[in-house]
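For the sake of transparency, this paper describes our internal protein records without simplification. The remainder of this section carries one protein's record, kept here as part of the documentation:
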Amino acid sequence: MEHGLLAKSPRIEVVDALRGFAVMAIMLLHNIEHFNFYDFPTASSAFMQAMDKGIWETLFFLFSGKAYAIFSLLFGFSFFIQYNNQAKKGKDFRLRFLWRLFLLFIIGCF
């Protein structure tokens, strides 16, 4: 008896997990940036003000550039996997690739 699940190609779960963490970090940073949480109450001391600024800059340093870089890298990796799978089947992926880039352009403009 053969199961239908065995016929599917396996997903790379590490890539999905990394993509999820990258998207989560991007969304958290966008929440701070776009909900305009830049107006803070006045600090009670110079130490608290320095700590607040340090935490703020550390979070942006740790998550901002790295989240975008990881997401972009995995986005390109996904396109490579799609291209490679179509090449193994003998199909041309260029038109599908252009269509997806066009859709991404429309979504980006929106």
Summary: The chain has one domain: 11-37+44-109. DSSP finds three helices and no strands in the chain. The mean pLDDT is 81. The CA atoms of residues 17 and 90 lie 30 Å apart.
